[in-house]
Amino acid sequence: MNIAPPARRTPAVRMAYAAVHSAEVTLSDGQRLASLGGVVVRNRRLVLLWLRRQALRLANGHGLLLPPEPVTPPTRDVHAVRFHGSDAPEELRRWATEGAHQDHAIRALEAGFPALFTVLDPAVGLSLTLAGWRGHPADR
């Protein structure tokens, strides 16, 4: 008589919860808000790295005639902004390169708070905000 071997029991599949963090750059005139681009990444350090890259990219593009970009930039970079004053690009550059600002941002993300940085372009009444937080974009 042939008896089938006992069925192998596969271990229960454990769904590992992967932390998700999001980042976005927005532009506002006080009444309307527009997203310049965003990203969803797996940890807070990647959020900060992406935000720093965007801050430097926006600051370094100030005053230059940038070539037109496709609708969705290939590296998920934000669309370029032309500032009317020089203060906003300098503040973006300072935020992206000074250690104290980066330390403050990473501590906020570690504590579960959003990391926010806003610069103003008073010549035209616009504000540009770099934001990072734990969770999906809809969780904001």
Give your account of this protein's structure.
The chain has 140 residues and is of the alpha+beta class. Helix content is 29%, strand content 24%. The protein contains three helices and four strands, in the order ββαααββ. The chain has a four-stranded antiparallel beta sheet with strand order 2-1-4-3. Strand 1 and strand 2 form a beta hairpin. Helix 1 packs antiparallel against helix 2. The longest helix is centred in the middle third of the chain and has 17 residues. The radius of gyration is 21 Å and the shape is globular. The chain starts with 20 loop residues before the first strand and ends in a 6-residue tail after the last strand.
Mean pLDDT score, rounded?
82
Task: Tell me the β content.
Answer: 15-25%
Encode the helix/strand succession as letters. EEHHHEE
Judged by helices, strands and strand pairing, the structural class is alpha+beta
Radius of gyration: 21 Å
Poorly predicted regions: 12-16
Query: How far apart lie the N and C ends?
Result: 65 Å
What would you call the quaternary organization?
A: single chain
Q: How many beta strands in the DSSP annotation?
A: 4
Binned, the helix content reads: 25-40%
